Task: structure prediction
Amino acid sequence: MRQRTRGARIGLIVALLGVTAPAGAQQRPVMLEILDLLKSRGQISAREHAALSERAQDEIDALRRGAPASAAVPVLPPASTRAVALAPAPAGPAGTSARSPAAASGATATSATIPAAAPSTTSVTETAMAAPKDPKDFRVYWKEGVRFETLDKTVKARIGGRIQNDWGMVDPSAAIERTTGDTTTLWGTRLRRARIVFEGGFDDSMGFKAEYDFATGVPAVNDVYLWAVVPGLQLVQFGHQKEPLSLQGLTSANWLTFQERALPVVLGPLRETGITSMQAYADRRLTWAIGGFRDVDQFGFGVSGKNAWDVTTRLTGLPLWEDGGRRLVHLGAGYSLQLREDNEPRLKALPETVFGSPLIDTGTFPAGNGNLGVIEAAWVEGPFSLQAEGAYLGLESEAARNPGFWGWYTEASWFLTGEHRPYDQQRAVFGRPIPKGNFGFGPNAGWGAWQVAARYSQVDLSDPALPLPDRAGDAPPGKLSDMTLGVNWYLTPNFRWTFNYVYANRTPAGSANVAEMRFQVDY
Result:
């Protein structure tokens, strides 16, 4: 319908101006200038412009000669008179429309009478509509990012990225200062993430994603993988990606309720390089994922003669799913077998911030294989949501007598403006919150989406057999508990402001107060 309306408008302009063009005019006809303008604004393609310009010029030449146009020349259909819609007449002094003579005689006030042109069987509109379109031509549009799509929708792509600028202050207690050497209140700013992503797909059966982070000044790989739809295995991903483990770990950092993930995140890896199969059943209310991964560095390199492999799996279910996800209950469990040889792990935790120093630290110690288990649950009831996870990591280590570490968190949030946390059924994670009304200053602008939240999290890295840190300034092993309060303001689906206050309590003695905020754009 949109193309037909545009074609009709072009045909009307060409026919109207062609009839009224001066017979002896030598300057470039107005109709051709209009076609140039439509092309420059992207309202017609270059091919349409060339075809319409050629036919319009033929009509002009025919009219100047006083001869009928050929069948290929676009003119108005034969008739003694023809009513053509024009712009509405201007309002009169008292707010009424000024009426033309035609309107006074019974015709509509927005029509004009034009002499009939020579007979023809093909119009500009029909010619333009008859021109075939290449299905491989693509369109560009915005949908939470810049997207490209061929007309037959067999090829799709997106260019996106994110910027997260964090500001924070950390005020450690005297006990923390004595342990870590941080003797002053720290405050400042940094880029938490600065990423560029390019992804695409072909025939909805295979595709790719390439995302790099430049926040530290050194490019680091994030999600860099290929994907394909494989019969029997459903969605398969090959490359650097997140291991299928933990609800908060798999949820994008763009859409986490708080600035940082809860403390148990230190127990498990996020991204490694490998192969994952993700499958959904029962109308996507049941998901299962399994993958094998190689332990790699921030650049995706992991080449050695030692074992450094993970086998990770996750199972989730939706016992409750109503109203498109405004009411749901999510349950899940995951397990990762970590095969290691001559490994020297080190676990440490900051108080859910990127500023300051770790408050607990195991130091390095010899270890072998590991077993990591995670249980997860979430409940969404309209604007209210509740989420919790627990994790346990056991390591094989003769020197440290097989230590075990655990952590858990629970969090609650409420959208004051009535939105809810969207849920991605295919991947069993939470997605992008969409405000009911974007913030702005126009007459139809809203206030965006406002969310308040609270979280309590804990991680225990203490073990009597662990060696004390061998370097001055390293925090001892111990237990860390955080209480976090947060406010989120989603101005639009792509712009977000966040404020968090964290009170961190460490065992052995010590505490810290953290105030931080983030300005974020993602697309």
Summary: The radius of gyration is 33 Å.
